[in-house]
Design brief:
This protein has a 5-stranded mixed sheet, with no helix packed on it. Strands 2-7-4-3 form a 4-stranded antiparallel sheet, with helices on one face. The chain has 3 helices and 9 strands, in the order αβββαβββαβββ. By secondary structure, it is of the alpha+beta class.
Amino acid sequence: MLARAAVGSITLCAVVLGGLAQEPKQPQEVKFKPTLILTGSHSAIRKNKFEVVANERDWQKLWKEHRGDAAARLFTDADQSFDVDFDTHYVVAVFYGGSPEGRVTPRRRGEALLIGYENLYYQTEGGAVDTSPDLSKAQEATTAHYAFLVLSKPMKTVVIERNTQRVLGEPPIWEEQKRFPAPKDKK
């Protein structure tokens, strides 16, 4: 009887101590829907760049860089504009370069907003001769994906993540690229 009580006590201690050793749980990740997402595949910003924009002056500067010169606008609407009410909203800009296709996946974990991005690739059998017209080849060569996510204020911490998973059908593996802490005044 004494041996059974000692084994029960050891088991109980192991369960209690095992529970104490666990790391604190991260808040659960959930989807969230921004006010607006504008995406496209022809930006003059050709390399990875991530910005959080909270005012008109910074927005105009970024928009001008994104639109580029007349040659960069060859395959997009030259008169394109995008106005944001910065009294009530802010913009997260994600420039993530070239591939035939791309997407962003907004999520929330606790108070942090997670903006995941990925380039989507496809594979075809090799040996084919490219017979597309020169204009199509030039258009494909200018592919540079971007996403503008318009979010309601107050501003929160924004984390930009890249999906590094390369196996089709497997869940994403998110790798942090850049973190923008929430401003102290939270405007």
